[in-house]
Amino acid sequence: MQMQPDLLQEARRQAEICNACRYCEGYCSVFPALHAERAFADGDLTQLANLCHNCRGCYYACQYTAPHEFDLNLPQALANIRQDSWEELAFPRAAGKAFQKNGALIALVTVLGFALLFWAARALASVGGEGFYAVLSHNAMVAIFLPAFLFPLVSIGVSLRRYWRHVGAGPLRPGQVLAALRSAAQMKNLKGGHGDGCNFEDEDRCTHARRAVHQAVMYGFLLCFAATSVATVMHYVFGMPAPYGLFSVPKLLGIAGGLLLTVGCVEMIRLKLRADRHLGAVRAFGGELAFIGLLGFVAFSGLALYALGQTPAMPILLVLHLGAVLAFFLLTPFTKMAHGFYRLAALTVDAQRKG
Question: What DSSP character marks residue 241?
């Protein structure tokens, strides 16, 4: 793994100053882990970077930021390392680098390209079925989306294995994973150094808005995934194929998840546009917005498809939604979506090192 040496050197310089100061020792998980080290190997810096939630509390509390000669900006230094590690650890690596450079264009072209393919398949094929299956058969959807679902699992699995080796983690134990899952579920590190929330939104003003938005996106996604899983079981195990009614379990889970995802993504974009870009990875800003926009469009188009499923607009909405879903799956290992997996790995490693 060949990370950029200038980024590592700058992060190491700032980490050594923070290690000597220790003013932020009671803040997020980064600082206890940082203060436990005397020297910082490349893997140590990558681990610290992926523990960081970019809440920015340390920056506004720091007495050594510009115009001080130390010019500390630890949130940005760690964000740059974090972004670089995702690109270098991605499988395949070239795809990770390409998305970070041209994320918005790649997301847009991929969605429209897949939508056109679905439209062509609809025009060329004559299928029977009810509802959406009158446009594209169930078997065709399975044949397309099953490989698209498996690919990101394999890709992220390879990437996490690379991460685990790079940071020098030991054998995995169930208790460590449970501790990491509890921390991730509560978004503990987004509470800020004193439990007042993040400084992300508006300079040194602390709020819990970013934590709430992250939870809306995470739980919205999990509800949508649960809706798809329940529908799969109903179809194959109980012989109950779609379409399902409003008060069915898949629909209730899907609508709730879609609303949470849509609102969460819109609010997350708003917060990012208000925040100071120079406290994050500046070169990744466009790619991050592209991913959030893609995820939000998947949720919104799904809700629109349900609302207008009995109208003439249904076929075009369906191909746009399916194109967005397929693009989301295939791009997941190279977008900000992967950060959830890396952060869970980092929290697991942190639990491991705490004993």
Answer: P
Residues pairing with 207 in the sheet = 198
Q: Is there a single domain that holds both residue 334 and residue 233?
A: yes
- Indicate which CATH number applies to the domain containing 292: 1.20.950
Strand (E) positions, 60-131?
Answer: none
The residue behind tokens 């819109």 is 266
Q: At what angle do helices 338-353 and 42-51 cross, to 10 degrees?
A: 110
Kindly report, residue by residue over 127-177, the tens digit of the pLDDT: 555 556 666 676 777 777 888 889 999 999 999 999 999 999 999 898 999
Residue pointed to by tokens 């395949």 = 92
Identity at 268, one-letter amino acid code: M
Residues 6+ apart with CB under 8 A from 22: 31, 35
SS (H, E, C) 290-311: HHHHHHHHHHHHHHHHHHCCCC
Residue 92 lies in a domain: no
* 174 and 262, same domain (yes or no): yes
Cα(211)–Cα(125) distance, integer angstroms: 46
Secondary structure of residue 276 in the 3-state scheme: coil
The rounded distance, in Å, linking the Cα atoms of 329 and 147 is 10
Range of the domain at 293: 101-353
Q: Tell if the pTM clears 0.85, that is, is over it.
A: yes
pLDDT, average across residues 280-291: 88
* Nearest Cα residue to 189 out of 342, 81, 31, 83: 31
